Amino acid sequence: MKHELNPENWVDLYSDYLFNYTISRVNESEIAKDLVQETFLAGLGALKNFKGEAHERTWLIAILKRKIIDYYRKINSNKGKAEVRIQFNSGDDNEGEWLETNVADPFDKTAEDEFENQELGAAIYSCLAKLNTKQAEAFKMKTILGMETEDICNDLNITTSNFWVLIHRARTAMAECLEKHWF
Amino acid sequence: MKKGFLFISCEEAKHICDKAQYGEATIWEKFELKLRLSWCHITRSYAKKNQKLSEVLKKSNLKGMSLKDRESLKLTIQQELKKQH
CB-CB: which of B15, B63, B67 is closest to A137? Predict the structure, then answer.
């Protein structure tokens, strides 16, 4: 099956997922936002190269990973330096040659935790995508962004009781969806 | 004593249960909810699922972008797409 790209929907479908992926790696919200934006722009620049073999989210994640590595290379911070391992090559022909091997995993997590959290994050975002826009927005603002109820009501232009109705419907749908796909 | 003084409907109980997940239920509401939970299995079942959902969401430690940031990002993408066409 050939996959297609729909850049018009990228922000709605993937911005939170990509942001969440990035923030756990760079720990700074502003940098994470910039990297997500750079990823989308790089994706737009590479639309013609997309062969349709991967799902667009997988394709965007691959771009984002490169962006994160580039970011660490660029800042060349102490943390960045510590992540580059230098290996002495003992081969006769290359005596004295120092090689940068690879950028180590910069995240202090086990691979298992990382994998489980990524899978869980993907399941949650996939369930969120099934909610209607207003329910999803209210749920995200309250549960993921941790915003105050009053601020959410102002931003979405709804009353407090409407807000709790949206939250109730969203939570019920999320629990059902995650029950099928995660619990 | 009015019936509604201590007795809350199942829907009201679920509503309080939702608020409690975000620490926004009052002490009185929590008391009413507890009372309802003591005898209503439907409310108990909802509360259990709701609690489980909160635990999973907490475990996932999800972060997201604000509505404003996403709107701004959308605009940037639209402008870039226009340039390409």
Answer: B67
Number of domains composing chain B = 1
| Length of chain B, in residues | 85
CA-to-CA distance for B58 and A122, rounded, in angstroms? 15
Chain B residue numbers touching A8 (CB-CB < 8 A): 77-78, 81
pLDDT in tens, chain A (183 residues): 778 888 999 998 899 889 988 988 888 899 999 999 999 999 999 988 888 888 888 899 999 999 999 999 988 665 545 555 444 444 444 433 333 333 344 444 555 666 667 788 888 988 998 999 899 999 999 999 899 999 999 999 999 999 999 999 999 999 999 998 776
The answer to whether B63 contacts A24, with C-beta atoms less than 8 Å apart, is: yes
Question: Which ipTM value was assigned to this complex?
Answer: 0.83
A8 with A63, same domain: the answer is yes
* Count: domains in chain A: 3
B81 chain-A contacts, CB cut-off 8 A: 7-8, 44
**How far, in Å, are A24, A27, A29, A59, B72 from residue A21 at the CA level?**
6, 10, 11, 14, 20
A132 and A179 inside one domain: yes
The residue range of the domain holding A132 is: 109-183
